[in-house]
Amino acid sequence: MQGSLHSSASRHSRFEASLLHFGFRISDCGLRSASNLNCLRQLLEVVFRRSAIRNPKTEIRNLRTAPRPHHGFTLVELLVAIAIIGVLVSLLLPAVQQAREAARRAQCVSNIKQLALALQRYETESKHLPAAGTYAPPKQAVYVDWYVRADLKSGTNYSWVVSLLPYLEEQSLYDQFDLKKKVTLNPLNPQATQPPLLLCPSDSARGRTFEYFDLGKKVPFGKGNYAAFSNPFHVDSWFFSGAVWLYERKLNKIVDGTSTTLLFAEIRTREHPNDQRGAWALPWCGSTLLSFDFHPESDSNLGNQKNPPSGYKPNKKSLGQTQYPNGAYPDMLYACFDRSLAQLDKMPCDDRVSGYISAAPRSMHMGGVNAVFMDGHVTFLPNTVDEYAMLWMVSSNDGEIVNERY
Length: 406
Prior knowledge:
There is one protein chain. The chain is an alpha+beta fold. 31% of the residues lie in helices and 12% in strands. The protein is built from 9 helices and 11 strands. The chain has helices at 2-21, 33-50, 56-65, 75-126, 138-141, 160-164, 171-174, 339-344, 387-394, and strands at 142-144, 148-150, 209-214, 217-222, 226-231, 262-266, 289-291, 331-332, 349-350, 368-373, 378-382. Strands 7-5-6-10-11 form a 5-stranded mixed β-sheet, covered by helices on one side. Strands 1-2 form a two-stranded antiparallel sheet. Helix 2 crosses helix 4 (75-126).
C-alpha cells in the first residue's frame, strides 16, 4: 500500500515537473477569469508540445538502434491534464455567458431609449402624444361593461409603433402602409417585417410572427419586444391613463411630469403563431400595450359615464395580483394556446377578455426588465418592485412623485 502511494506521488511529482519544464506552474492558476484563461492557454500549449507527432521514418529508425525515450504523457498525466482543462473551461463559461448577456442587455437599453426619443420628436412635430391605436371614434368604440371600456379591435387598428416609424428611420416601411385601410388589408404586408430596433436580442424574437385570421385569410404580423404603458388599471379602460392613452392628447395631460412617468417597457414573445404578444403593428393588450391592473378603491363609478370617478385611489386588495415585471398573473389575450407550455415558459396567459384586459412587462434579463420614462432616461424595473411605487410611475396624473429607489 505504501509502495502504491509512493508510486502515485512519484508520478504526480514527475507530472508537475514535466509541466514545469515547459513553463507551466499549476499553483499560478487562480479563480479569476483572466487567470484561468492564461492557465488554459499555457496548458494546451504544453499538451500539444509534448504530444507532437514526429516523422514516422525517424521513429522507426530510432527504435531499431536504441531504446525509445519517454517523450509523451502517461495515461494518468493526460487524464489529469484533461481534467484541469475541463475545470478551467467550466469556470470560464459563466463569465463568457455573462459578458454576452451584458452586451445583449446594452442593445436592448439602446433600443428602448431610441423609442422614447422617437416619441419626443413625434410630439414636438405633431403637438400631441400618439394614440395607443387608430381605434374607431369614441362614440363607436367605447361601451359600458362593469367599467367604461374601448373596443381595441375597432377602427383601422394601427398601433402607436406605426405612428413612430418615420422617427425611427423607417420611413420606407411607413410608406408601405395605407393608413386609410384596415391594418390587415395592406397588400405589401409591411406589418410582417421586424425592424431591428424593435427586437431585444435576449428574447430571440427574430423570425417569430403572429398569424391573424381576418375576412377569411391569414395575415402575418412580425413580433417585437417593446410595449407602452397605457393605464394603471386596464388597457381598455376609458378612465385613468398611463403615458400612451387610447386616443391622442396633449403633453400637458402628463400632470406627474415626464421624468417620473413610465413610457415603455420590454415584453417577451412566444414561438406560437397564434400568440399575439409582441405583434408590433397591433394596438392590443400584450402586443404593444401594457397596464398594471391595480384596481381603484371604488369600482361602483367605473361604469358611470355621467358621474366618473374623481382621482385615483388604489384598492389595497389588488396587492399581490398586479402586473408587476415577469409576474405570475396571466396576460389577458384574445386567444391563449398551450397554456401549460406558456406557464412553463413563464409567460402565463388567459383569454377571459370580458373580465379584464392587462399584461405585464417581461424579459429574459436576470431579475427584471428594462423600462424608459417619458423624458428618455432608462431604468431597470426589478421583479420585486414595490407595487405602490410602480402604480404611481405608470399612472400619469395621480399627483404622486416616486424616485427610483424601489
